[in-house]
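Lecture notes, part 5. Sequence design as translation. It can be helpful to think of inverse folding as translation between two languages: the language of shapes and the language of residues. The source text, in structure tokens, appears below.
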């Protein structure tokens, strides 16, 4: 199994333009999800260019994260991988100093994500 990422509240899943997805998503906590039909989303973006810009920006951020993950898997030690994961997750969660970080995923999930 290959885990390609962990989503946090506010993240978008499934912004592919094909008819099917090459991956699946599995929740490790209770979630609230909102589904958008592709045609409705495209129409909304046409009416609101700022939305299109924000979605494009998010897609670019996802690409950058995927590239960083490839570097992490290929060049870092196990200790560096875990440290990078924890620092990256803390940054995404925007935690204050000393604030505990929730880790709802299990060790196996983290290990699979980090290639350990």
């Amino acid at each position: 199994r290959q885990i390609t990422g962990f989503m946090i509240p506010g993240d978008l899943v499934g912004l592919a333009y094909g008819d099917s997805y090459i991956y699946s998503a599995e929740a490790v906590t209770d979630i609230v999800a909102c589904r958008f039909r592709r045609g409705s989303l495209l129409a909304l973006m046409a009416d609101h260019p700022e939305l299109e810009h924000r979605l494009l920006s998010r897609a670019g951020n996802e690409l950058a994260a995927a590239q960083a993950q490839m570097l992490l898997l290929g060049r870092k030690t196990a200790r560096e991988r875990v440290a990078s994961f924890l620092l990256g997750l803390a940054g995404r969660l925007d935690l204050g100093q000393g604030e505990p970080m929730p880790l709802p995923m299990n060790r196996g999930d983290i290990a699979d994500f980090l290639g350990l």
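The translated text above is only one of many valid answers, since several sequences can fold into similar shapes. Residues 28 and 104 are 6 Å apart (CA to CA).
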